[in-house]
Amino acid sequence: MRLRAAFMLLAGLLAATETIAADKTMIVLDASGSMWGQIGGRSKIEIARETLGTVLKSVPAGTELGLMVYGHREKGSCSDIELAVAPGTGTGEAITSFVSGLSPKGKTPLTQSVEQAADILKYTEDKATVVLVTDGLETCEADPCALASALESKGVDFTTHVVGFGLTEEEGRQVACLAENTGGKYFQASDASQLVAALTETVAEAPMSKPAEAVAEAEPEPEPAVAFNTEFDSVLAEGGPSLGDNDNVFWQVFKADAGGKPAGDTLESQYKGKFSGNYPPGQYVAVATLQSAIRREVPFEVQDGAVAKPFVNFDAGHVTIHPKRTPEDAEDDANAGVEIAFGGYSTTYYGTARFYASAGELKLTGKIGPSIVAETVAVKAGETIERDLVIGSGVVLNKAVYAEGGTAVDSGNVFFEVVAASKNIDGTRKSIAYNYGTGTKLDVPPGEHVLTAKLGSATGEIPFTIKAGEMKEVTVNINAGVLAITAPGASFIEILSATKDIQGNRKSMSYNYGAEWQDTLPPGDYVVNVKYEGDVAPKEAKATVKAGERSEVTVQ
Q1: What's the Cα-to-Cα distance from 309 to each of 225, 270, 279, 281, rounded to whole Å?
Q2: Residue 354: in which H helix or E strand, if any?
């Protein structure tokens, strides 16, 4: 029915005396870290990729469509906003390609992103539409409601539609104002099928201005002789129950080519295990994909007066993996990575992993920091498997002091590194984990290790032992003091060891270009060498550093 109405509408448009310009629409996509969250055992970013790829194939020719993305390049940045694809016609493939490579990681500057999208669309001069897809609320201290009111007052014909992907009703109310204040719609999308519906209405079926006479000429298409002439169904195992409304199943219907393979554009797509449809008589191919991992093709023929029944057996089981540091842990570790691999497919979940896997060998790799464990699971068709994956990792809380029992080091410049307790043949130790800053944490495997700390020219280390699941505070004594030097008019300051080597040279500890310099040094005597521009002779001064103390030297 829609197809015939569309042809009638096109005829009306071609007959009109005025040329109607296509709308300009910008999709603003949330790629913040929370998009790794799961709905029905699939990550939200995975669902968004698949959904956009399908919906964009149905965008009317002539629609000027662009893509803006936020939160995909930097953690903690409110300015991580990128115009990924400039608005234009025929941009569907470019948008799909860009989204397929996204790796969510950052914050949610949705207000600023919508504002930038409006500016790019020249909303004060032309009709413009923004479609925001977000799974979270504003995290960058901006007011989306106030922005919406400002855009509405300045815009020629500006509209924002908002799709709350996985938001609660309360969260949805906090962002719905972006749509309501600009005359747009708010869509609550709690699963893949609802996301398809929201994007189809706002992007693929977005209305264009059209002459009234063209609407009047569109006639309804007669109802088919049968309610539905094709019934699709799928199961996990032979003889098992239908997957019914399970939206982890993604169907695509294509015309079949001479070899019985999918040809041309998608005729229909559905996120359901079972559904019905109507198609003209002919040869077709249905492609059914279970959670982006297991793909099946089913050729079928539609005949007048008959009902075709494409059927798929995925031959798969449903698996839930709980990553834990120890067998006794009550909660899954949300930071643990669980890599799954089967039948040539692989992906990684973070935290609890819920997915479908083909019958046969399933390989699991769990990671927490440098701790890695690998297991193999046998999966049977129709089986539900739920098991723990114990990765066995401890946590070190890094601390440092300047002297035994003395002042704690409070600095983000301290470099902490956990190294192997045993040395290599050349005296070095294998690096296990590292981080900057006092009070930071490091994930480490259970066993014996050494924690080292370096600040300025001072270093310290301490051996420690840790158990799986244990959080342990480890304090390193760097045995150092601070030497602060002021040399008015100087262009170069260097700190040298007071003791000369066998060649009569002093070891250079550190240096700086300028009139001031400060370094953290082991206790002992030092020589400060100061140089000046022009013909001014260099100067030297002596200094002594004590552990846990600050020494200040002025060279005149």
Answers
A1: 17, 16, 12, 14
A2: strand 353-358
Give the pLDDT score at 281. Answer: 96
Q: Quick check: helix, strand or coil at residue 236?
A: coil
Q: Which of 276, 270, 300 is nearest to 288 (CA)?
A: 270
| Short-list 451, 434, 450, 445, CA closest to 467 | 445
Average pLDDT along the chain: 89
Of the candidate ranges 206-220, 258-272, 433-447, 516-530, the one whose mean pLDDT is the lowest: 206-220
Q: What is the pLDDT of residues 1-50, one digit of tens each?
A: 333 333 333 333 333 323 334 468 999 999 998 898 888 778 889 898 98
Q: How far is residue 246 from each of residues 272, 276, 430, 467, measured CA to CA in Å?
A: 5, 14, 48, 42
Counts for the chain of helices (H) and strands (E), in that order: 9, 36
Beta strands in 228-336 (DSSP E): 230-235, 249-256, 262-271, 275-277, 282-290, 294-302, 311-313, 316-324
Residue 121: strand, helix, or coil: coil
Could you tell me the two tokens for 230? 């094709």
Rounded distance between C-alpha atoms, residue 304 and residue 283, angstroms = 12
Q: What is the largest CA-CA distance in the chain?
A: 105
Q: Report the distance separating Cα 436 and Cα 456, nearest Å.
A: 13
Query: Of all helices (H) and strands (E), which one includes residue 131?
Result: strand 127-134
Report the alpha-carbon distance of residue 481 to residue 549 in Å, rounded.
Answer: 5
Token readout for 553 is: 């030297």
At 49-80, the pLDDT tens digits run 988 888 888 888 888 999 999 999 988 889 99
Cα–Cα dist 506/499, whole Å? 6
Q: Classify residue 13 by burial, with Cβ atoms within 10 Å: 0-12, 13-18, 19+.
A: middle
pTM for this structure? 0.56
Tell me which H or E stretch contains 550: strand 550-554
Residue closest to 421 by CA, chosen among 454, 453, 397, 451: 451
Q: Which helix (H) or strand (E) holds 187?
A: strand 186-189
Beta bridge partners of 262: 256
One DSSP character per residue, 371-437 reads: EEEEEEEEE-TT-EEEEEEE---EEEEEEEESSTTSPBP--TT-EEEEEESS--TTS---EEEEEES
Q: In the prediction, which pLDDT does 14 show? A: 33
Q: Does residue 212 surpass a pLDDT of 70?
A: no
Q: Is 159 exposed, middle or buried (0-12, 13-18, 19+ CB in 10 A)?
A: buried
With both helix axes pointing from N to C terminus, report the angle between 192-199 and 44-55 in degrees, rounded to the nearest 10.
Answer: 40
| pLDDT confidence of residue 220 | 54
Residues 6 or more apart whose CB falls under 8 angstroms from that of 8 comprise 214, 217, 218, 219
DSSP SS3 for 49: helix
The token pair that represents 489 in the structure block:
């008019």
CB hemisphere CA count around 387 (13 angstroms)? 17
The pLDDT value given to residue 55: 87
The packing angle between helices 110-120 and 144-154, to 10°, is 10
